[in-house]
Amino acid sequence: MTNFISSTALIAKMLPTDYVGFTFFVGCMAMMAASAFFFLSLNQFDKKWRTSVLVSGLITFIAAVHYYYMRDYWASFNESPTFFRYVDWILTVPLMCLEFYLILKVAGAKQNLLWKMIFYSVVMLVTGYFGEAVYPESAQVWGFISGVAYFAIAYEIWLGSASKLAKEAGGNVLAAHKILCWFVLVGWAIYPLGYMLGTEGWYTSIFGKGNVDVAYNIADAINKIGFGLVIYTLAVKSQKD
After folding, report:
1. C-alpha–C-alpha distance, residues 238 and 30, integer Å
2. pTM, full prediction
3. Run of H or E residues at 83
4. Residue 240 burial by CB count (10 A; 0-12/13-18/19+): exposed, middle or buried?
5. DSSP 79
6. Neighbours of 38 (CB within 10 A)
């Protein structure tokens, strides 16, 4: 009984108006539920699609673990968990780029497409972290580099070689590719916007840093789970063909 009381004392009280803490908690649970769904559905797919669905589960699982720690960090210090968020992104965003490669392999996608997308994503995230946490006095410069890398990814999937491969594949692959492209163009746009609104000394005063975390949390859940559901739907449709 004593151990139970001492352990519950470590749990910070969440106020009814703590929308940031609430979205961290909901985000964590949503990612965990999505991971369980993707992992438990693996046996229904053949080897061709099992890797893609597995990666979808890994993306949400990694995010769930980080959201667990980010939720506690926010509750303990009432500060944005920038470090944990970027560790999450540096692991999950390249995996989301991997999903493009995996679904386009049916059209002959080469590994150079994969490494190009991963390179762009790493540059986007590393420079974003530098501008937001390490060198905030030059946030505009680092933000510009991060933005260029983001638009390079968007160009590659909308107009570059990935787009051409998707058109060659046609059918369900093309339809899934287009939906994923919209996730990147619209869903991922919250990240550079959040960078500008959340970087100290830049546009923080417009909405306040906490509100940026709410936007990040909602966008993360939609983007990561949504990505996985698109892949899952593609795998289900392809099994029936």
Report:
1. 26
2. 0.90
3. helix 82-104
4. exposed
5. S
6. 24
Interatomic CA distance for residues 93 and 90, integer angstroms:
6
Question: Half-sphere exposure of residue 70, counting CA atoms within 13 Å on the CB side?
Answer: 32
CA distance linking residue 235 with residue 172, whole number of Å: 9
Residues 6+ apart with CB under 8 A from 139: 131, 132, 195, 199, 201, 202
CA proximity to 102, closest of 241, 195, 238, 219: 238
Burial classification of residue 118, based on how many CB atoms lie within 10 Å of its CB (0-12 exposed, 13-18 middle, 19 or more buried): middle
pLDDT digits (tens, 9 = 90+) for 69-82: 999 999 889 888 99
Torsion of CA 175, 176, 178, 182, to 10 degrees: 140
What are phi and psi for residue 78, nearest 5 degrees? 55, 40
Rounded-to-integer distance, Cα 38 and Cα 19, Å: 28
Q: Name the residue type at position 52.
A: S
Burial label for 184, CB within 10 Å (0-12, 13-18, 19+), is: buried
Alpha carbons 134 and 117: distance in angstroms, whole number: 25
**DSSP track, 180-227:** HHHIIIIITTHHHHHHHHHSTTTTHHHH-HHHHHHHHHHHHHHHHHHH
Q: Quick: pLDDT tens for 19-71.
A: 899 999 999 999 999 999 999 999 999 888 999 999 999 999 999 999 999 99
